[in-house]
Amino acid sequence: MSAASGDGQGEPNQDADRLFELPPELAIDTEIARRVLVDFIRNQLRQAGFSRGLLGLSGGIDSALVAFLTAQAIGPKNLLCVLMPYRTSSPESVEHARLVVERLGCESDLVDISAMVDGYFGRDGNPGAGGEAVREAAPLRRGNLMARERMCVLYDRSVAWGGLVVGTGNKTESLIGYTTLFGDSACAFNPIGDLYKSQVRQVAAAIGVPEPIIRKAPSADLWPGQTDEVEAGFTYPELDRLLFWMIDKRRTDDELSAMGFPGPTVERVKRLVATSEFKRQVPPVAKLGPRTTGVDYLYPRRRPGSART
Amino acid sequence: MQPLRIALAQLAPRLGVLEENLARHRELLAQARAAGAGLVVFPELGLTGYQLQDLAAEVAMRKDDPRLLGLASDTKGLSAVVSFVEEADDHRLFIAAALLEDGDVRFVHRKLFLPTYGLFDERRFFAAGDRLRTVDSRLGVKLGIAICEDFWHLGVPETLALDGAQLLINVSSSPGRDLAAIHEVGLGTAASWRTLMRTYAQLTTSFVIFCNRVGMDETISFWGGSEVIAPSGDAVFTAPLFDEGLYTVDIELGDVRRERIGLPLLRDERPELHLRELRRILAHRTGLEIDEASEPDEGGGTPPPAKRATGGREKRP
Q1: Which of B86, B122, B148, B211 is catalytic?
Q2: Could you report the predicted ipTM of this complex, rounded to two decimals?
Q3: Would residue A300 count as lying in a domain?
Q4: What is the overall mean pLDDT for chain A?
Q5: CB B16 to CB A304 under 8 A?
Q6: Which of B125, B55, B63 is nearest to B88 (CA)?
Q7: What is the pLDDT of residues B83-131, one digit of tens each?
Q8: Which CATH number does B4-268 carry?
Q9: Order of strands, sheet of A107-110, starting from the edge strand that comes earlier in the sequence
Q10: Using the beta-carbon criterion (under 8 Å), do B55 and A300 form an inter-chain contact?
């Protein structure tokens, strides 16, 4: 662990536009965003009675940005970054995660989840706890289990660390449902859930996230060579622009078409958004009694007496 | 004329923690007094926090609540605008702003417009006020007090000014949103509010005093940026975005007279014309038959509008 710059500050990147493509309508005031998000993290923790946080640091830009923001909010010594590679994860992912830890001077921990995942699916021809039937499970199932094992590790470590799990999912992936329910989306609160990927890149560049992390192709790294954009079939700037006009600016299909978005892409993205609605909401409860949580029992999450004492 | 020193208490209330917020108000009142302020303005629901939901009933106070009277007792020789959840005799809950002066609760304004759209859900938890009145203050001028969304309806500042207000006070809990680089201040909400307040100050030739809170309730952040705008429409003072603080600013009340002599917009207002046209519009919207497209004294063939208006109570098909 290095003490390079222990205040959670990196060097802002002056030529951000050279690092990534930013659709002009998605450009935000990064200083206001940074300020609001740092306050948000500090408030969420304080109101819950905590002064520490932890997160899964993948080596990608989303968790790197959240690590930088959290370090600024509560100080790097109150932040635990947990690196959780699987045996097929790209070695570059761990290298990049270490780069963030060094830059921030925060606490870190490495948990290899291979034994947990292989323990269920089996390995080298030997069945695991899941039995014969899951040995040849599709990459999607394996990826989901990895994401959920990471969640288990984080929530277990959160007890020993005495901190809350900080979420690292962005608005783009949330809207199209490119997340694992109760896996990577599980957290106590999520600072970047209302930032599109393009905006994550913008804030990351402004706050000093190391350049190789900003520059590389986003990947869930659930299997070798996987990248988000290949899997999805469109680039983040395209997708972000479409989601922005469709959702934030309420443009109709005809209007989107007139703006040059291809009909089939619009259809496909609309379907992704609609079919993933369930991932963005708490599970529904059947209304029976006079007052039902989430229906007509409506209290702020943080109210007098709600904090851990 | 002695300048009036205004203190803007751009604070971050603790959600639902009434006692702590009361103590903070008393502390800031004392600080403002020590700084020589004559008028201290606190933000909307500064005593309770904004995102109350079902907590609203638990933090509500009647306007004779000893806790509110205790706060008022700190205002000897001072004017203060504070905001809280008011419970009426019939147990309706209102978002209220009170003028405290010389130890008394002098006046209570109940929020007229309750936003219930987008991120807002006020109408679910609160009743809307029905009265828009100015109040005489110990400062020697009439005050017009409004709460946040009230100022997104043109008629409110206009009516207050026509009723004699020279200081228009808006207390707000405005959530920051629409973060975009294209806006003057990087935040759409702040840019819109700034446009409104300058416009109202200029068109009503009055001072506009805006106090907006900071801090966060749950997921929403409040952007502060409290302001005082002169009757000319120029900003006298702009508080920083997001920073908590007690900001003082001096104004010359004589600027109202100077502006109104030089730019007699209020003199030239024609409320009777408004009233006549509003009656017609209202009749139309509520289904009462009136159809007058021309000036009242034109085209002698048609009956005078007053007669048509009173006689025209038949329902539209």
Answers
A1: B148
A2: 0.85
A3: no
A4: 92
A5: yes
A6: B63
A7: 999 999 999 999 999 999 999 999 999 999 999 999 999 999 999 999 9
A8: 3.60.110.10
A9: A107-110, A79-83, A53-56, A164-165
A10: yes
